[in-house]
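Changelog note: in this version the structure field was regenerated for every chain. One regenerated record is shown below for reference.
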Amino acid sequence: MKAGWEIKTLNQIAENLDNKRVPITKLARTEGQYPYYGASGIVDYVASYIFEGDTLLISEDGANLLARSTPIAFPATGRYWVNNHAHIIKFDNLITQRFVELFFESIPLDDYITGAAQPKLNQKALNSIPIPVPPLSEQQRIVSILDQAFESIAKARANAEQNLKNARALFESHLQSVFTQRGEEWEVKTLSEVCEIKPPKNEAKKILNNSDLVSFAPMEDLGINQKYLNTIKQRALEDVAGSYTYFAEGDVLLAKITPCFENGKLGIAKNLTNGIGFGSSEYIVFRPNKSLSNEFLYYFLSRKYFIEEGAQRMSGAVGHKRVSKEFIESYKIAFPSIDKQIELIKKTDALANESQRLEALYQRKIACLDDLKKSLLQQAFAGEL
């Protein structure tokens, strides 16, 4: 540890105000004049607190703490209510308060959380956490550097996130224009008129023996913004022909269940073992006829507009909703000649590759910025900033 620094526990440098609670009515929480804080926002609990001034609130809810990647501690000023799922810590000095808040961002809390069914960061465990405490002037220097750096990181991260959205929006705009700015020679038909939907399983049994291997693709193998189905799994035909969905080389697979459908899980079957595949019962399988390219159909189904329409026509219990068979079969697709489809596919492929390159670039930038923040915190509390 750096010279001049001490190791102290939280109760040595701050006062815990958890025991100073008073009852509060639901009406006072929802319509009272003071803001109301819970472990993760405004929540409905009976045992609450009212305090005034600058304090640090720390969530007691272990599951909530472990799920967070952002600060688990946050300052509260003024007069406010706090429920009994948050610890209230009072410091003599606001610099030390901010220093400790930043420290809590830098450490994992797994070792201090107790309870399996209802994990908690209780007061005893909180007070036992060792905190490196430098002189006040050093605290102020560290807080100043980190706050300035984090402000710049936040701006850079916001820019990268916006650029990521822009890259996706640009491709989606192109995709939508392909199917709306069509010429007079384009045909308009329903999907059931240009595709065989759910080809029969007996096709596989006619060309393969029960012991022959076929590709096997569970739902996790079907990608998002991934043109081709990527699976290396194999099973014997007799093991999958009963309850799984059948498809063959070149068929287009679309997830029909929530949230996979809304997420755009979709792909073209390719490089299948013996040209045959089986997979999730939640797949819709399309086999386009000679007038429609499977790649053209893939891009048509991947549009945000189609997915949003389908999501509105889902039915079933919460968590198990599926896009309706009627919606799929009656949905209309416009398409030009095969030659024109191939031309449009080439242009769309090129833009898709560029969009994916940009998305990967911005995702790497975001990851690097997150790593930079973690590195700065580690250096700060090791006395190396």
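Spot check on this record: Confidence is low (pLDDT under 50) at residues 40-48. The first helix runs from residue 10 to 13.
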